[in-house]
Amino acid sequence: MNIGILGLGLIGGSLGYDLRSQGHHVLGVSRRESTCQTAVALGSVDEASVEMSLLGIADVIFVCTPIALIVPQVEQLIKHLNAATIITDVGSVKAPIVQAISPLWSRFVGGHPMAGTADSGIEAAQKNLFVDRPYVLTPDANTPKDAIAILEEIVRSLGAKIYHCQPEQHDRAVSWISHLPVMVSASLITACMGETDPEVLQLAQNLASSGFRDTSRVGGGNPELGVMMARYNRQALLSSLQQYRHNINKFINLIEQEDWTTLEAKLQSTQQARPLFTD
Amino acid sequence: MNIGILGLGLIGGSLGYDLRSQGHHVLGVSRRESTCQTAVALGSVDEASVEMSLLGIADVIFVCTPIALIVPQVEQLIKHLNAATIITDVGSVKAPIVQAISPLWSRFVGGHPMAGTADSGIEAAQKNLFVDRPYVLTPDANTPKDAIAILEEIVRSLGAKIYHCQPEQHDRAVSWISHLPVMVSASLITACMGETDPEVLQLAQNLASSGFRDTSRVGGGNPELGVMMARYNRQALLSSLQQYRHNINKFINLIEQEDWTTLEAKLQSTQQARPLFTD
């Protein structure tokens, strides 16, 4: 199959390695000529170009640009394609993308491979990045069944675990387990830094160990990614944050009222619930 | 030196191993005869008894019981001691303990070794548990200098890093880096479990990965420990929680107002601040 990849970063480049190893002919497009050359030299793609017209012969195209560029790039891309081409994307938020692209291209299936590393760029791309990782697909009732089936077969060949859901369900789920934790964790850091006694602040920094390290990790991550989550998944994240604040208030009330029995019951329930997410 | 250990669990038992290896004669007291026998058999203490009178000849006594028992046990202990004996404790909250014991025993120095494992009990005790770990001491202006010096020498021999501060400063510092993260993290789990669409909840559980795992870890820990933190460090924890809620509100407001510039600046500041706590 001829498979196109638009955007040759960590995800696009990694897809290229795996799809080539499955015997597909992989065509890559990047805005930068140097990235095109690197992608070919590394063996991530068979051919690469800064021109979208390269993708005219592709049967399936993965759009792997930063999320802000997915819709505008697809708008430019489609004039080069024949109507049979399947388009999918790898954006970490689905509803706004699916809503924008579905009216433009009937053979579009939203996707989100939940894989990544702390690094980015074509140099960070690696083989087998998607093995045993979740890969969410968000077709709707109008998505042609054959397009879904073809895409599923490709995703399955990456070794990924496929989940189907509505775009809005995806966005709510990732707001709980990915976007809310970033804000929860960042707020922990800003709250601690607000300590007004410099001796206490210094002591806190000296005494912090694995508990603080883990709870603050995602709040100390890439600021641009954090803004992107908030920007593109704003409604779901706000809803999660408001629910979260409600729960913080409940904990504060229990401690104010010295209701240790209920507090212990709540902490027992969190101890029991956590493995549902992590096992 | 004769060193007494009252309470032969993870911390008491581990202290015993290290103090014996430094050449001290270690006397252990536990409420359970079986624990006494185990501690002697494992080599954590030289002698052990369920009777506090065993500690009558000790020069220094570490009180290593659960936090709720520290003050009542010291009240019973002191009738067996001569006035030169130094008492210290290992409780994770300092102000209420120091306030209760200082009037009873002038040669008391509050302490908190910041070391532990997920396990508890004498069987979990291990050698060199305190190496390179913080060990906070909270003497006040009235604490005899020689008592502080003797205790410091012992703590230094464990390989620990000694910090001095007021009991209230200790309690505020640990509320930031240890007790607040537990409530922050537990609230994340309870908020997620409050998702009303069972398909979204199931999807969230399937998609959760390292970010959620880390942020939720301490909220899924021992419920009794969580209650103990809240109970004994109530004022400091409430103050931290209120500051934290204030910061959550700020994040919510920025996202509501779509003020992406300020949000990115805040996330940049958390990215810069986190290494102050973790490096």
Question: In words, what does this structure look like?
Answer:
Two copies of one chain form a homodimer. Chain A is built from eleven helices and nine strands. By secondary structure, chain A is of the alpha/beta class. Chain A folds into two domains: 2-165, Rossmann fold; 169-278, 6-phosphogluconate dehydrogenase C-terminal like domain (6-phosphogluconate dehydrogenase C-terminal fold), CATH 1.10.3660.10. The first copy, chain A, has a six-stranded parallel sheet, with helices on both faces. In chain A, strands 7-8-9 form a three-stranded mixed sheet, covered by helices on one side. In chain A, helix 2 links the parallel strand 2 (25-29) and strand 3 (47-49). In chain A, helix 6 (167-193) crosses helix 10 (234-256). The longest helix of chain A has 27 residues, at 167-193. Chain A is elongated and about 70 Å long. The two termini of chain A are 37 Å apart. The model of chain A has no long low-confidence stretch (mean pLDDT 97). Chains A and B meet through helix 6, helix 7, helix 8, helix 9 and helix 10 of A and helix 6, helix 7, helix 8, helix 9 and helix 10 of B.
